[in-house]
From TrEMBL:
This is R13L1/DRL21-like LRR repeat region domain-containing protein. Pfam families: LRR_R13L1-DRL21. Gene3D superfamilies: Ribonuclease Inhibitor. Residues 54-151 form the R13L1/DRL21-like LRR repeat region domain. InterPro entries: LRR_dom_sf, LRR_R13L1-DRL21. It comes from Camellia sinensis var. sinensis (China tea).
Length: 152
């Protein structure tokens, strides 16, 4: 499966969307931000050319458990995701794609994206994959994240 149905965003009472194991999934359907009752979303994919799609996460304040955002190298406005408002997230995986060459990646932009994706301080597990930034943002290691038990 490469795509979810285009009308998935119309399922406004949907609470759980488990796309774990859907490794061929390439993008998210439009209007995901309308799924404001969504509690489980295992992976949100930001595809090339759809860098603004991450703003669809902004209204999904009930997300909980484990959550992954992949394709972060395609993100345009990361702050709009409002991860800091998602108090139910226990595990957060942030993934940059390995398909882009090192030459086409901008370390400063990657640092800015990661900085804007600061999660709520209750997150316990944080994994960051494929990040080429020169340093981590100041929120990584901040004492407010004392609940964190695992950092990858």
């Amino acid at each position: 499966m490469k795509k979810l149905p285009t009308a998935t965003g119309n399922l406004i009472n949907l609470r759980h969307l488990n796309d774990t194991g859907a490794n061929s999934l390439q993008e998210m359907p439009p209007k995901m931000g309308q799924l404001t009752s969504l509690q489980t979303l295992s992976n949100f994919i930001v595809s090339k050319g759809n860098g603004f799609m991450i703003r669809e996460l902004g209204d999904l304040i009930h997300l909980r458990g484990a959550f992954c955002i992949s394709g972060l190298d395609n993100v345009v406005d990361a702050k709009a995701a409002k991860l800091y408002e998602k108090q139910g997230l226990d595990e957060l995986l942030m993934e940059w794609s390995n398909t882009n060459s090192e030459d086409s990646r901008n370390e400063k932009v990657e640092l800015e994206v990661l900085d804007m994706l600061q999660p709520d301080n209750k997150v316990k597990v944080l994994s960051i994959n494929g990040y080429y930034g020169p340093i981590f943002p100041t929120w990584v290691g901040d004492p407010r994240f004392s609940n964190m038990v695992h950092l990858l």
